[in-house]
Amino acid sequence: MKFTRLISLLSALVLSAPSFAANVTPQAVMDHYADLAHAMYADSLTTAKQLQKAVNQLITKPTETNLQAAKDAWVTARHPYQQTEAYRFGNAIVDDWEGKVNAWPLDEGMIDYVAASYGWDSDENPLYTANIIANKTLTIAGERVNVSEITKTLLTDTLHEADDVEANVATGYHAVEFLLWGQDLNGTGPGAGARPASDFDTQNCSWGNCDRRAAYLQTVTDLLIDDLQWMVQQWSAHGDARRAVTTGDLRSNLATIFTGMGSLSYGELAGERMKLGLMLHDPEEEHDCFSDNTHWSHYNDALGIKNVYTGSYTRIDGRKVEGPSLSDLVAAKNARVDATLRQRLNTTLAKMQVLVDTAENGEAYDQMIGEGNTSGNAKVKAAVDALVAQTKAIENAINAMDLSAIAFEGSDSLDAPYKVQ
User: Fold this and answer.
1) For residue 314, what is the enclosing H or E element?
2) Rounded to an integer, what is the distance from CA 100 to the centroid of its chain?
3) Smallest Cα–Cα separation from 392: which of 310, 270, 296?
4) Alpha-carbon span 185 to 41, nearest angstrom
5) Overall pTM > 0.90
6) What are the beta bridge partners of residue 139?
7) What distance in Å separates the CA atoms of residue 237 and residue 359, rounded to the nearest whole number?
8) Segments of 222-319 assigned E as strands
9) Residue 21 confidence class, pLDDT cut points 50, 70, 90
10) CA-CA-CA-CA torsion sign (207, 212, 213, 214)
11) Dihedrals phi, psi of 358, to nearest 5 degrees
12) Which of 157, 166, 283, 364 is least enclosed, having the fewest CB within 10 Å?
C-alpha cells in the first residue's frame, strides 16, 4: 500500500530577514546539508560493496555460514542507508530514484517460489506468482517476454513495477532481503525467513533453479551498487543534487530540509510504516518483513531526521561529520522552539530504542504489532505518538523561521483511519 506524494508549495515561501548566529548563514547550512548527504550515501555504498563481497562468497560456496555472513552484511548495509531517508521528500532527485533501491512492500511470488499459504493469484497483480527464477518466459501486459537471461536491464526496464503494479519490486534492498531470507511464514509469531543455503547450491539444490536464483541475487546486488554509486555522484562537488540545494533561492533550499524531516516523520514513518501495521496487526506491513530487521530501520529513519536538523552524522568508521545546521538558524530566531524540537527528536529516538531493545531481546517488531500483544502494541504506539509530537515541533520551527506552505506527506492511518481496512 502506497500513498500519493505531496509537493511542497515552494512558490509561496516567505523568509523574513533573520538574525542568524554570527558565523552561521543559510548558505553554510545548505552546503553542510549536502556534505552530510554525501557522507551518508558514501557509507551506504561502502557497506553495500561489503554485501556484494559476501553475496559473491555465498554463490561461490553456498554454506549456511556464508549465507549468514551475507545476511549480516545486508543488515549492516541498512544502517547508513536508512539514515539517508530524510533526504527523500523535497529533493526530487532522491525521491525519483528511491523506488529503485527501497521500494516496498513487494509481492515476492513474482521473484521466486512461495508457500501455498501465499495464494496463487491476485486481482490486483497478474504477476503475483510469476516466479521469474523458475520461468524463462513470462506474459506481461499480454505480451510474451523472454526472461531466460537475468540481467540488470531486464530487472530495471522490464520487471521492476511491471504492469504498472508497484508491488512488483524486482530491484533494491528488499529484493536482496527476500532472496537471502525467503518468506517469513511465522505471521506475528517468533522467527524470520528461513531460506536454506542449499537454495543456491547447484550441486545439491533444495528448491530447483539454484543457478538462476544465484544469478538473480548476484545481479540485483550488483545493480544496488550501481544505483548507490550514481547517488554518491549526485552529492559530489559538481553533482546535480548538491547543486539543487546549494544554488538558487535559499527560501526553497531551506524548505527542502524541513520537507524531508516532516514528511518522513509524519506520513511515511509514523503513518505508512508504523500506524498502519499496528492498526491492521499485519506483519506484511512491516518494513523489513523477511529479515525481522524493522526495529533498526525505524530507529535509523528517526536518527536520520535528527542528523539533518543538527548537522551531525557519525560515519561507519566512527568519524563525526558536523557543521552549520538548521538547528543553529532556528535557535537564532527562537531558542525555545529549537530546544523543544531537539527534545522531541531525542524522545522519539528513546522510544525507538525501546523497540530495538525489545527486538534484540527476542520479540521482533512483527510480534509487537500482533493482535492481543498489549505491551508490544503500546511500545509501537508510543513511538508513533512521539513522531507525531515531533512533527508538530518541526512545524513550530518552520513558523519560527517565517517559512510557510510546506506540505508534509500524509497517511490515511493518521489522517483518516476510518478509510483503513
Assistant:
1) strand 312-314
2) 11
3) 270
4) 33
5) yes
6) 144
7) 40
8) 312-314
9) low
10) positive
11) -65, -45
12) 157
